[in-house]
């Protein structure tokens, strides 16, 4: 089973020694549990510290070996080269791998073989191994989906033993094997509360729109004990598939994958239809009273946007920075494992994140660990410090509307999350979904009409709540006009 991301250093070394692992270092005081890259790949920066017995600089020698090993392909930057290799068939990749040590390293890049595995084999039949290349070749031997049984695409071994220098290849391996430094998970500035009344929660956290961790909710659910058992989860999804990274897996397959994966950012089970597939799971929890008001319920189960998900993933899986859909608030309950959260308020763009003006398109680091390596330190220099915490099993975190958040599993984790619309954030949701382009979580043909359908349903089922919002808005307008319109350009109805 995949190891947790964080270990105390002494314990990590002892465990590594007992298990016969090599403990490698990155040069920056950070440790790799599995030691150096299995193909001897190193980042270009290590040349600054290496000596060579041959004439000329180590850098010139490395550049020459890359040119000789890749031929005309050496003119390409690594990112472009990987894109080109991603267009090739398995047999073509393996033919290149047999030409040089350098090509062997590039053609063995695991992301290439993950794509080939999903392209060539039905996920319902795939067996998973330690690397995607091994997974592909072993399933090819099994003759899945019409492949040539008994004929793996590549039998060629590595040619020579020259060191290959590539930041791209090394970064992927480094991120997949790095122990998360303790300083990355030690900050705890999200308050923890228990025995809160609903009125206290609304006044201190929901209306001010700030996060909080509630410690006395999840432990009362039957799910807190039952979902710790893999067999219970397996039985719950017997005969069903679950949604994992855009693919459909059986639950047995997904656990097989999590037990074997060494991916930089493992595939994450994020299933919005778990309750329909397994009613007994839906019966194992109740929505906490703090979040019971969910006004999207007026639309009915077939009409409302997606709102609840079962989430399961190994260490290093998680979600990069995003805001929850449709300006809703959310709660996220951890049943097993531990989750690191980093959160920024709506008006603060996290370091390393680039979003379009309407925030529909968000670009950030390829993997969560890469973001930590490149940008976590910058959070210490932000004018507004992020909220950070590790949510433990048995706790639930309130995620306020509009907050940017990143979540990474420190251990294999099982969690449950729901988005909701309450009176406190109704006006923001109404404003947001007026623009059909921004609506998510429902079929395309329903997005343009969501605002109209929601308002009509509110008028019929919750008229007083809607009227209260209109009165509040009218009062704000009256105050503005009474002031003679001063500051009108700064007035924000959102």
TrEMBL record:
InterPro entries, alphabetized: Cupin_8, F-box-like_dom_sf, F-box_dom, JmjC_dom, JMJD6_ArgDemeth/LysHydrox
A molecular function (GO) term: metal ion binding
Region of interest (Disordered), residue spans: 1-35
Signal peptide: none
Positions of the JmjC domain: 276-437
Domain of life where this protein originates: Eukaryota
Sorted UniProt keywords: Iron, Metal-binding, Nucleus, Oxidoreductase
Database matches in Pfam families: Cupin_8, F-box-like
Biased composition (Basic and acidic residues): 1-17
GO cellular component, one term: nucleus
Compartments, as annotated in UniProt: Nucleus
Protein family: Belongs to the JARID1 histone demethylase family.
Protein name: JmjC domain-containing protein
């Amino acid at each position: 089973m995949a190891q947790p991301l964080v270990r105390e250093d002494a314990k990590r070394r002892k465990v590594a020694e007992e298990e016969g692992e090599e403990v490698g270092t990155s040069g920056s005081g950070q440790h790799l549990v599995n030691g150096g890259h299995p193909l001897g790949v190193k980042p270009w920066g290590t040349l600054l510290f290496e000596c060579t017995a041959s004439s000329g600089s180590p850098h010139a020698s490395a550049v020459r070996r890359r040119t000789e090993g890749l031929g005309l392909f050496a003119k390409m930057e690594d990112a472009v080269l990987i894109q080109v290799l991603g267009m090739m068939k398995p047999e073509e990749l393996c033919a290149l791998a047999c030409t040089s040590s350098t090509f062997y390293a590039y053609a063995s890049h695991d992301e290439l073989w993950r794509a080939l595995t999903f392209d060539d084999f039905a996920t319902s039949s795939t067996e998973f191994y330690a690397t995607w290349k091994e997974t592909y070749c072993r399933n090819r031997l099994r003759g899945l989906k019409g492949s040539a049984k008994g004929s793996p695409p590549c039998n060629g071994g590595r040619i020579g033993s020259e060191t290959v220098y590539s930041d791209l290849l090394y970064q992927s391996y480094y991120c997949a094997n790095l122990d998360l430094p303790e300083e990355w998970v030690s900050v705890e500035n999200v308050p923890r509360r228990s025995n809160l009344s609903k009125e206290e929660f609304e006044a201190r956290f929901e209306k001010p729109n700030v996060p909080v961790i509630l410690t006395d909710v999840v432990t009362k659910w039957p799910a807190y004990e039952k979902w710790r058992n893999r067999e219970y989860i397996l039985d719950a999804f017997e005969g069903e598939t679950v949604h994992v990274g855009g693919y459909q897996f059986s639950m047995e397959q997904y656990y097989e994958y999590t037990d074997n994966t060494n991916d930089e950012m493992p595939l994450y089970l994020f299933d919005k239809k778990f309750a329909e597939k397994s009613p007994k799971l839906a019966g194992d929890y109740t929505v906490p009273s703090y979040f019971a008001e969910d006004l999207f319920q007026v639309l009915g189960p077939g009409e409302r946007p997606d709102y609840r998900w079962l989430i399961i993933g190994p260490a290093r899986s998680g979600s990069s920075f995003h805001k929850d859909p449709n300006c809703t608030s959310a709660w996220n309950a951890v049943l097993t494992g531990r989750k690191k959260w980093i959160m920024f308020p709506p008006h603060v763009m996290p370091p390393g994140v680039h979003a379009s003006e309407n925030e529909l398109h968000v670009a950030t680091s390829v993997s969560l660990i890469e973001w930590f390596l490149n940008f976590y330190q910058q959070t210490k220099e932000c004018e507004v410090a992020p909220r950070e915490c590790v949510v433990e099993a048995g706790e639930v975190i309130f995620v306020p509307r509009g907050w940017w958040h990143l979540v990474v599993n420190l251990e294999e984790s099982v969690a449950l999350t729901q988005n909701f619309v309450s009176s406190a954030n109704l006006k923001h949701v109404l404003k947001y979904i007026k623009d059909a382009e921004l609506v998510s979580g429902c079929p395309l043909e329903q997005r343009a009409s969501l605002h109209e359908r929601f308002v009509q349903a509110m008028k019929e089922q919750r008229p007083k709540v809607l009227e209260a919002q209109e009165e509040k808005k009218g009062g704000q307008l009256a105050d503005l006009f009474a002031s003679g319109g001063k500051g009108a350009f700064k007035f924000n109805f959102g």
